[in-house]
Here is the input.
Amino acid sequence: MKKLFLLLTAMLAMQLSSFAQKEQWADSVISFSSEYGVSPGGYWSASQIIGAYNQWPNCGDWVTAWSPATADGQRESIVVHFATPAPPEKIEIYETWYAGAIDTVYVRQTGTTTWTQVYSATAVYTACQILTINVTGISFNIDAVRIAINSPAVLGWNELDAVRLTSPPPVISIAKKSVTEGNTDTTNMKLTVSLNYPSDSTITVKYNTSDNTATLADNDYVQLIDKKLTFSPGKISKKITVQVIGDTNFESKEKLNVVLSNPVNGTIGVGSANGTIKNDDVLRTENNLSAVMLIKLWPNPAKDVINITGLNANSITDLSNEDLVITIIDIFGRSIQSEKILSDGSSEIYFALNSNVAAGAYFIKIAGNEINYSQTIIVE
Here is the structure.
């Protein structure tokens, strides 16, 4: 039983470690008010705060900690930098001698000069401690921490050994993208998936496509099912490629969905995005211009029936002997009603609108071997 418990504990630790938050130590000192030694490398110099702690949990007047130049002469401060900009979740400051003098702590938003206060307290003496600051309400990346010390309030040498920044797992987000459809073959639509900061671990996320106004039934795009995107350590941007299928049909712009799921070593921020297919086709009067020019659609605006006349009014092409497909398309490119009209030799078609066609603006499309024609109609 003990062996089983130890095995389960080890497995749990491994599982938790795969979702570990990022931890990093200060990698340099940006500025300081004073130092007892001389940086870099001098005993009690500001540079001693860089990197992991040296003495903790041993309290004492250690040469490997930063100490101000005087014990109680003035307020003191130090600004430390972190190599990987990341959002703060927890800040730990290792105070190894005459602790408790820290009264304010600020973080700097990466790429700006904006500082945000994350800690405020009255300076009160304690022998030594890890000052732990749990940060909430900050989602932006930071690259520096400023520590202010009320040295006169805590008598003695107020010494700091190290500063550690802990960040939540990287956030995975996807951005929308649009491409022009094309008339033949396929066009690659590449949507960017990004992390808010680079990870030391491999991050993966699954993704799928789904219909919006662009549909698989209309052969608008190639479906992606249960695909996986992998970010190697240090990488922050990847692409998802969706193949858009070209055609020569006049359509309004259409959208498909790309959805993220099942992240590993990260969390999902913006988990879905639209891919927009922009129409590059025109309202066409082909394949037979002379025939199309004689076609009339009335009334327009229409209520429940559209009359289509002139199908045999041209001696070159007699469309009255051709089977036609008539489709009503809304402004979002969705097919609302579509019917195949079998040839009966008539020069006129009475096309009854069904209950799916509400009042509004539409395209009516007439398609056959000799014609591919679209026109705007209004339904009252």
